[in-house]
Backbone:
């Protein structure tokens, strides 16, 4: 069975590429300078583990956006687009709620103020730009190459549902009641950092739920790539600043288990995609041999 698909419009591809570059820069600041967020980031993060956690999330989202921009059709790109739209919209709300904590006043270094104004421009502009691009995408009638639809295995579908529920519940709790929900996080969070982490968890949970609904191996490949990169980068973050976690408590165990689940889902998706490409190449090679014999 093959599925009809439409090409991704150029404005959407451009927005995704630009967004990937911006989140890479944000991840660079947080990953390379986790102890200097007062000088090089939009707000001060006192716990380095929080900075590198967010930096890893930003870098992995760059992978998601590049994968979306390179998608042959809208069927694959939409997972990226809607995930980015949900995350950026939530982060804009978080920013407005905690605007007083951002480096806007003259008492902050010029470098931090420049980054902060850039942050505000990005999170105010990207959701609007994506909505405009979505409206343009809705008018597209250009067909994309068809591909065989391959449903996800039952085990992977179940894993995606579990991840979606855990991540969405955790993210919503951190966003809505950060003071209470941060007590279940494995290292200390302020209300601002709790909500920033919560926005990422909701974005990841949304992506997992969307992948389950799409239920097609080829179209969920961006999530597979992002999941693997996210887990690898978070593992490096733990190696650097894992002493911030209370390893004797349940939150640390849950954190590691969820990371493991994300990594397992991502690797599973990639392996399925690789197997599908091999099968497709085999079919094409067989077809070529068969055609040669009939001549």
Residues:
């Amino acid at each position: 069975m093959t599925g009809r698909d439409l090409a991704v419009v150029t404005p959407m591809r451009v927005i995704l590429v630009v967004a990937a570059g911006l989140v890479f820069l944000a991840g660079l600041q947080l990953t390379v300078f986790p102890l200097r967020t007062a000088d090089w980031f939009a707000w001060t993060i006192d716990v380095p583990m929080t900075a590198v956690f967010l930096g890893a999330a930003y870098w992995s989202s760059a992978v998601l956006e590049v994968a979306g921009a390179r998608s042959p059709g809208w069927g694959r790109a939409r997972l990226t687009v809607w995930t980015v739209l949900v995350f950026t919209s939530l982060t804009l709300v978080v920013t407005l709620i905690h605007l007083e904590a951002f480096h806007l006043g003259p008492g902050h270094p010029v470098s931090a103020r420049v980054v902060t104004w850039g942050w505000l421009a990005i999170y105010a502009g990207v959701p609007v730009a994506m909505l405009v691009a979505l409206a343009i995408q809705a008018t597209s009638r250009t067909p994309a190459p068809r591909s065989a639809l391959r449903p996800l295995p039952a085990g992977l579908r179940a894993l995606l549902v579990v991840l979606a529920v855990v991540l969405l519940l955790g993210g919503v709790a951190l966003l809505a009641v950060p003071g209470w929900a941060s007590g279940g996080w494995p290292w200390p969070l302020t209300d601002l950092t709790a909500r920033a982490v919560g926005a990422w968890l909701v974005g990841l949970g949304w992506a997992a739920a969307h992948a389950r609904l799409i239920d097609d191996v080829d179209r969920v490949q961006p999530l597979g790539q992002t999941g693997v990169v996210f887990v690898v980068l978070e593992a490096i973050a733990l190696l650097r600043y894992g002493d911030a976690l209370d390893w004797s408590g349940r939150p640390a165990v849950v954190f590691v288990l969820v990371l493991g689940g994300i990594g397992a889902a991502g690797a599973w998706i990639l392996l399925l995609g690789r197997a599908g490409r091999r099968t497709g190449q085999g079919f094409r090679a067989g077809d070529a041999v068969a055609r040669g014999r009939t001549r």
Notes: The first strand starts at residue 2 and ends at 3. Residues 14 and 257 are 36 Å apart (CA to CA).
